[in-house]
Amino acid sequence: MEFISEINAAVNGVVWGPIMLAFLIGIGLFLSAKTGFLQFRKFGYMLKNTIFGVFTKEQHAKDQSGVSPFQAVATAMAGTIGTGSIAGLATAIMSGGPGAVFWMWVSALLGMATKYAEILLSLKYREKNEKGEWVGGPMYYIKNGLRLKWLAVLFAIFAMIACLGTGNATQSNSIAVALESTAGIAPWITGAVLTVIAAAVILGGMRRIASVNEKLVPFMALFYVVCSLIAVALNFDKIPAAFALIFREAFNFKAAAGGAAGYGIMLAMHYGFSRGVFSNEAGLGSAPIAHAASSTKDPVRQGLWGMFEVFFTTIIICTLSALVIFTSGVWTAGDLDGAALSIASFNSILPGVGGVVVTLSTVFFALSTILGWAYYGEVCMEFLSNKSKRAVLIYRCIYVVFVFVGAVGSLDLIWSISETMNGLMAIPNLIGIFGLYKVIKSATKEHFNRL
Which CATH code is given to the segment(s) 2-449? Predict the structure, then answer.
């Protein structure tokens, strides 16, 4: 076990090191330039065709080949809006300083282009399975677009393993820990209840997952945003100072002990970029799998939802989480980190209620992530097994078991391996996006020329 841990640590240091982070940001900048910085130039158009148009018939239209565009985005956001928006943001602040928040914004603004591109490609190169339903994702556009099946297989393997850990076991563990600390509920009880819920939804396939997420995701997002806005409003006078702190520390050129100047800004950039990617998953290749199931026929319109996902999860939710932490002042003690810091910050502003807010948000966020990543894993299994129904059913059963394992077990190694698999997923995905950038540019130009 120690040998496995050492190998994983070595690989992790590479896939989440400076070179990989530069690759992620570089691809985002490259795609932004190739699309004429679409995320800024067409920001209003994006809002009009996503959140402002959420109640139109077009967003809820579906047929036998796929779920509605909104159900697809709800499932994708279920997998994206996770505990990283709470605990991950707090860790970025304590490890990289307040300036890390600024670099999370930068990673998100560039990541909007990356996610737009990967979702566009997932619809462009998707296929239909034996049920006549749309399936797609990085493995399909790498295979059908780049004609590199071996690279597509690698992505599917990495993603399938990551689903069991990052999208499943670590999430059920977060729920169990939160409920045990605030309500005294034994982990095995939480695990049993979660397993039953997960089985009831997951074994029903994508349509049932999408149907549940269509209701769960808007509720959980609205709940957290409203509670955060209330907490921030109560300390409204401290908001200007909080933003000033973020911008000042983002460019802090303090030196490390015995080192060269610039250590402060490098640390802020590292944690800002890495946690930014974890918060919105732009470039990892997970969300395009859900979007490919949409019944929409326009890849660009669905890609706009990807842009909105990144904007909402990082620019909106993570910023609100950061403002709660900074305006509370709790973070200055330096003795708390992760979810504990978020809970303490909310509690200092909303005594007796803050802990409940973070706990409920953790439960909703983590549960939705479990459901969203379940679909990602089964599509990967379907791809690897040449659309075998039996293989998919076996994977679903294994996935459900991991829900319970995660709730009652110690997950240090599982979390570490899953984090490594997340990084490995990104490599073939980014290669696919870069190799097909002309397709992205052409489809984007064609769409806007029609307007």
Answer: 1.10.4160
